[in-house]
Amino acid sequence: MDWGAVVVAAGRGTRMGAADNKPYLELAGRTVLAHTLEAFEQCSAVTSIILVVSSGEQQKAGEIIRLEGFRKISLIIPGGAERQDSVYAGLAALHTEGVLVHDAARPLVTAKQITACCKAAEEHGASALAVPVKDTIKVSDGNGFIIATPERRTLWSVQTPQAFWRVELMDAHRQAREESAAATDDAMLLERLGRKVAIVEGDYANIKITTPEDLPIAELLLARRMGEE
């Protein structure tokens, strides 16, 4: 089974409060985007990458790819208004049997994790990287009061990459668009159609760069990883 990846780098990241969008922030001497793409370049299962960026940032992303010498980037395309639109655009540009969807703002993903997601999807039809929730989670009534406490042992914090048969994910996206159904990740689109998505246990280090304090945390995690190697 051949695998491609849709790497989504089209988010604005307003919570970072930085001049640059998240993929172009510096992390340990390189851009966040470079760290992310390197993991997919190192994964032998992945043959093609579609990079989805914010409108007007194709040249900027292309320069990073040129300087880093990445060879698997097939296309750099502009994203849509929402993440869901950006993923759909990436899927339409890809032609592999399997697809991995990954947020560019998760630069600590590893080739080993990507491969594990591919294998799980080949066996079960779809997979998502996730880690067990550590904290007790509460459900609120929307007015500041707790109304329920889910059983923690059943809860997982989902990450990316998430892996699918490309045709099935495309179909799920099309149905969601027709029904104006929004989803915060791609696994959710298959869930709403009754499909099962296998959990691949990941690593708590695979954090998403979302707020300013995430960058120094990522630097520390990256330094520790490099020290272990």
From TrEMBL:
Site feature (Positions MEP for the nucleophilic attack) residues: 152, 208
Record key words, sorted: Isoprene biosynthesis, Nucleotidyltransferase, Transferase
Enzyme class, spelled out: transferase
Listed GO MF terms: 2-C-methyl-D-erythritol 4-phosphate cytidylyltransferase activity
Listed pathway(s): Isoprenoid biosynthesis; isopentenyl diphosphate biosynthesis via DXP pathway; isopentenyl diphosphate from 1-deoxy-D-xylulose 5-phosphate: step 2/6
PROSITE patterns to which the protein is assigned, alphabetical: ISPD (PS01295)
Catalytic activity: 2-C-methyl-D-erythritol 4-phosphate + CTP + H(+) = 4-CDP-2-C-methyl-D-erythritol + diphosphate
Entry's EC annotation: 2.7.7.60
Domain of life: Bacteria
GO process terms (BP): isopentenyl diphosphate biosynthetic process, methylerythritol 4-phosphate pathway
InterPro entries hit by this protein: IspD (IPR001228), IspD/TarI (IPR034683), IspD/TarI_cytidylyltransf_bact (IPR050088), ISPD_synthase_CS (IPR018294), Nucleotide-diphossugar_trans (IPR029044)
Site keyed Transition state stabilizer: positions: 15, 22
Pfam short name (any one): IspD
Summary of the function given for this chain in its UniProt record: Catalyzes the formation of 4-diphosphocytidyl-2-C-methyl-D-erythritol from CTP and 2-C-methyl-D-erythritol 4-phosphate (MEP).
PANTHER family registered for this protein in UniProt: 2-C-METHYL-D-ERYTHRITOL 4-PHOSPHATE CYTIDYLYLTRANSFERASE, CHLOROPLASTIC (PTHR32125:SF4)
Family label: Belongs to the IspD/TarI cytidylyltransferase family. IspD subfamily.
Protein name in the entry: 2-C-methyl-D-erythritol 4-phosphate cytidylyltransferase
Species of origin: Cohnella abietis
Gene designation per UniProt: ispD
